[in-house]
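Cross-posting from the modeling subforum.

Setting up a comparison between two proteins and wanted a second pair of eyes on the formatting. Protein 1 (sequence, then structure tokens):
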Amino acid sequence: MSEQTDSTTNDTPNGETYKLTLTGGGLSVDREVDEATAFQIVAAVMGGAPLPRVTSAGVGGAHAADLVRSRRSAAGRQSLREHMDEFEPKRNPDKILAIAAYLVDSREAETFTPDDVKKEFRNASEPVPANYARDWSWVVSNGWIAKDDDEPGEFYITQRGREALSQKFSAEVKRATAQGSRRRRTRKKAEGTK
């Protein structure tokens, strides 16, 4: 007896299923899913790039990203101000990173430009830094964001940037990324002049 394959499930035999069990955070799922869905879930869990969407006629043809989106919608959306408050940024470079994280996490942008971040300061009820270019360079030199080699002018958040966010810009992070003060030298007055 030969097995027929279903082209919509990446050439797996008809009826091939995987058991999914997921619990936590008030969510409990226990069901069978087709191979395409299983691969999408594994890709999401392992942190890799999402696989291209594969339609499926099998059991439970949901896409992993759809599960995440529906969960996020059910819990309510988070505003930029709420996102900023969550990370407690105080310095301008900290605020730049927190806004960039909002663009990536909440708006699902893979990359962002300096202007993308700058435009969001008003939405966060924050003043735009007076020397934005300097503060942006500071974020880059901290290693929190880096240029995307594939997209000129675009940036992404690095692992070091994610660590700074997860530590809520702790005193240790601030010490490690502090810039020395640049005091202006005062000229000594020539003798005999007042």
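Protein 2 (same layout):
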Amino acid sequence: MERTHAWQNAFHRLARCYERRATVVNAFFDLADTIITVRSLIRRAWTTHR
């Protein structure tokens, strides 16, 4: 869990919350988690299926 928070901190938009609506903030977190997951899958596929 702590590693996930560290990865999310790389997204500076999430470090400072400028949005007023919680749905927008949750959407940004979901987008960041999706990007983190896709990057991990690409990295794993690149090293495995080379």
